[in-house]
Amino acid sequence: MTALLEVEDLRVAYGKIEAVKGISFSIEAGQVVTLIGTNGAGKTTTLRTISGLHPPLSGSITFEGRPLAHVPAHDIVALGIAHSPEGRHIFPRMTVEENLLLGAFLRKDRDGIQADIDRAYDLFPILGERRKQAAGLFSGGEQQMLAMGRALMSRPKLLMLDEPSMGLSPIMMQKIMATIVELQSQGTTILLVEQNAQAALSLADTGHVMEVGRIVLSGAGSDLLTDESVRKAYLGED
Ligand code: ATP
């Protein structure tokens, strides 16, 4: 079986600084895969490169068997990859509904778009209740929901989430993590970047630990959760 996404020996640099130094991993359809690791490990750079926002130095990224080299970012969205970025980047002066519509900018099927807006409101009822309000008034957790809802508006096969739990209360974080599980059960494949290794590994089928641009350890999420080196380095245990 071919993987949904295949990353092979990917290297990415900012000028002379090599942020990603030859990583390889694949994602099977239906899986939740997480990249964990400390600040600066290269996780965000990896997502941005898959999205076509940053060019690779070398290596390959293949989605459903198709190489993504030189494919522009909007075509990558059209192929079925959506990216909810670190820091959310919602549009604060626009309403919830307008922000969601931006996620559907490539689509013309009005009925389908409305159905997906309704689906976002089912997933996150608070967004429906506040659909006409400016998104800038929202709490961090609500903005995170909106960023996820917006990414889902392109009906992605692969949803990439960068640090969705950042700055959230434990209850809001649980809600976001539960939503990831729900989306997986509905058939969405997810690539999750997280600083909160405990939460990410608890729900991921597969995890990869990144350190300074390299994957240093990979395994089932549940195995990495109990791995002694992971526990010491990322789960705050002595
Ligand atoms: P974080 O959780 O802090 O986002 P990360 O694992 O996602 O960490 P990246 O953001 O991918 O890591 O950063 C990897 C390396 O690339 C770091 O050394 C960072 O300083 C560097 N870097 C990231 N963005 C840029 C940029 N726009 N210009 C120059 N260097 C950058």
TrEMBL record:
Family: Belongs to the ABC transporter superfamily.
PROSITE patterns, A to Z: ABC_TRANSPORTER_1, ABC_TRANSPORTER_2
GO terms assigned for molecular function: ATP binding
PANTHER family: BRANCHED-CHAIN AMINO ACID TRANSPORT SYSTEM,ATP-BINDING PROTEIN, HIGH-AFFINITY BRANCHED-CHAIN AMINO ACID TRANSPORT ATP-BINDING PROTEIN LIVF
Name of this chain's protein: ABC transporter ATP-binding protein
Keywords, comma-separated and alphabetical: Amino-acid transport, ATP-binding, Nucleotide-binding, Transport
Domain (ABC transporter): residue spans on this chain: 5-237
